[in-house]
Write a structure and sequence with these properties.
This protein is of the alpha+beta class. Helices cover 24% and strands 20% of the residues.
């Protein structure tokens, strides 16, 4: 119960104990569970199977209060035992004291975001706000909450909050021969956008610039209207005041300055080195990439559909949350990466990717840190890959050929 903690305990030990004059020593005994409510504990009668806690000889309770007037400050409790001669430490039995326990409880109950070791330091609750739904492909988060279409301040707050968390960029690799899928894997690149030090993060909000084609509240892209200063606030106000029967406001999360062409080239070279004869498909999808607010039409569904057919939906796609992989494009002078360069990332993940491919994983299985550990600790990803011969290719049967 107590380890290395200052407490008040009696200096008067049992008669004849040679440590009676030594305030740095402690004769301790187990404390029964009932003692935790502040009741007096009888050290002599406590059993060794009871929960351990701090206690001196007879006359002490579990809060450290003394019924004796002679007491001294004991600065460190090294172990707790039920006999003066025992040198065997007791089994671990929880936090060191009540104050430390209460601090940990308050930390768990604090309203701030929860951070998870090994994951980017983000408030993940923001990815699932109330009254929103995520599309099946995990790309679009949408809501038809009335207050977001009726209050410019509510919409502004939502967009600003959602702009503070990044999209989830992926690498998707699939190898096929005919109809046979040899492997189908994914890698998560979100960690490359989010340095642990929040002061070094590069994200920013961007509104459409002058002369840029975009959906500015109409049914098709245009370069007007312009809104001048305080752009985001003004666009939110225009959306709320727009009398259109059907309208939507969107935030796009964008990954910038990631050299996907270089990464794809490395992946293709890696597969070619394994003597793979199939077709390699490489793509860079981005999930959690869009937040959309739509109004809730007051008319019935049939009338709404008819009005939408003839008048169209008023779209506001004027705001982006930019998440740079680096300050500039690959090759530009002075380029600085948010976390690490493409080359450093590739050196870390080349062998884990090769290992995942060699296992012929399917259904978009993720290559994870566990694969990286096995590559580093066990040399996985170094062996040759047996792709099989022509028989491994799933060819169409004769009936299909005749058809």
């Amino acid at each position: 119960f107590v380890a290395s903690e200052s407490v008040w305990l009696s200096k008067r030990v049992q008669d004849g104990d040679p440590r009676a004059a030594d305030a740095s020593c402690l004769y301790a005994a187990p404390v029964a569970v009932a003692a935790f409510n502040g009741d007096t504990v009888d050290a002599a009668s406590a059993s060794s199977s009871d929960i351990y806690g701090f206690v001196g000889p007879k006359g002490f309770n579990a809060t450290g209060a003394s019924t004796d007037t002679n007491y001294a400050r004991i600065c460190t409790i090294c172990y707790i035992s039920d006999s003066a001669s025992s040198l065997t430490p007791p089994p671990y039995s929880g936090p060191s004291n009540f104050s430390e326990t209460s601090v940990s409880i308050r930390a768990r109950e604090s309203p701030g975001p929860t951070y998870y070791p090994g994951l980017p330091r983000l408030d993940y609750k923001l990815y699932s706000p109330p009254n929103f739904s995520l599309s099946t492909d995990c790309i679009v988060l949408s809501s038809k909450s009335d207050h977001l279409s009726a209050s410019a301040n509510a919409l502004l707050s939502l967009i600003s909050t959602q702009a503070s968390i990044p999209p989830k960029p992926l690498i998707h690799m699939k190898g096929t021969r005919g109809r046979k899928v040899d492997f189908d894997i994914k890698l998560n690149l979100m960690g490359l956008l989010v340095p642990d030090d929040t002061s070094k993060r590069m994200q920013y909000i961007r509104c459409v610039s002058e002369g840029e084609m975009a959906y500015r509240g109409g049914v098709k892209p245009d370069v007007i209207p312009e809104v001048g200063e305080r752009e985001l606030e003004e666009w939110c106000r225009r959306f709320v005041e727009d009398p259109a029967q059907v309208k939507s406001f969107a935030l796009d999360r964008v990954v910038a300055n990631l050299d996907t062409m270089w990464i794809e080239g490395q992946l293709r070279a890696l597969l070619a080195a394994t003597q793979y004869k199939g077709v390699l498909h490489v793509s860079f999808p981005v999930t959690h990439a869009k937040v959309v607010v739509q109004n809730q039409p007051k008319a019935n569904k049939f009338m709404t559909s008819m009005k939408k057919l003839f008048s169209g939906k008023h779209k506001y796609e004027v705001v982006q949350s930019i998440w740079p992989f680096a300050t500039a494009k690959s090759g530009d002078e002075g380029r600085r990466c948010a976390v690490q360069s493409e080359e450093v990332w590739w050196r870390e993940w080349r062998d884990p990717i090769r290992y995942a491919v060699s296992q012929k994983r399917q259904n978009g299985a993720y290559v994870t840190n566990e694969d990286k550990l096995e590559a580093l600790m066990e040399g996985k990803g170094q062996d040759s890959i047996d792709w099989g011969g022509v028989d491994a290719i799933d060819m169409p049967d004769e009936a299909e050929l005749e058809g």
